[in-house]
């Protein structure tokens, strides 16, 4: 398993993977499973508000602790009150055994892969990761898809599980949350089995708008060893067109068609 350059768990991947697989999940636990740069921290705040029945932002410390990849003290999580929620970019097959086998709740979050690639490029560049130019990033990170086992593998595995109509997996996309915010928040509230009247839903939508989230000073940027806020950039659909050349777009589409055979998931690339 190849983890990102900045992940604190990269030093001992095997130990990290064992800790995740053997994690003692509870029936009330919720795991947000997302591809990188798909709106993880956005959904994290929404889930926090729904579960805690508040419109207050999460504290920085809790955001850090909820991330499996930033975890350094797994035993401490046993002291947390239920309901607990976590987020990770790990594929379904690497999630806690107890959570998967007992079909505890999973929010599967994804985003169109072109916007995700562009967002990831800017994110890693600002973090000082030596990714080179966009062309170099495209050749070495987009065409060679290997982080967390690869986006294509991640997506196909979750789409297959979701297609089996499992009640414990709720698929959410960045694009749907962007263009149909209120209905998606209602879906999340129903899935989490929490009370949420219209006023509460609209208050969360306002508090978790991109502009307000970007200005939120309890950002999680420093969980990846930096004082700079780089989590939030544009938050739009279609930004890929600003970097993808015609040739790159054609090459990616060919790769997508080949790797996604048998998976009929549809993403929104323009609005």
UniProtKB/TrEMBL annotation:
Sulfotransferase domain mapped to chain residues: 28-263
Cited Gene3D superfamilies: P-loop containing nucleotide triphosphate hydrolases (3.40.50.300)
Descriptive protein name: SULT1
GO MF terms held by the record: sulfotransferase activity
Top-rank taxon: Eukaryota
EC number, as in UniProt: 2.8.2.-
Keywords associated with the record: Transferase
Family: Belongs to the sulfotransferase 1 family.
Entry-linked InterPro entries: P-loop_NTPase, Sulfotransferase_dom
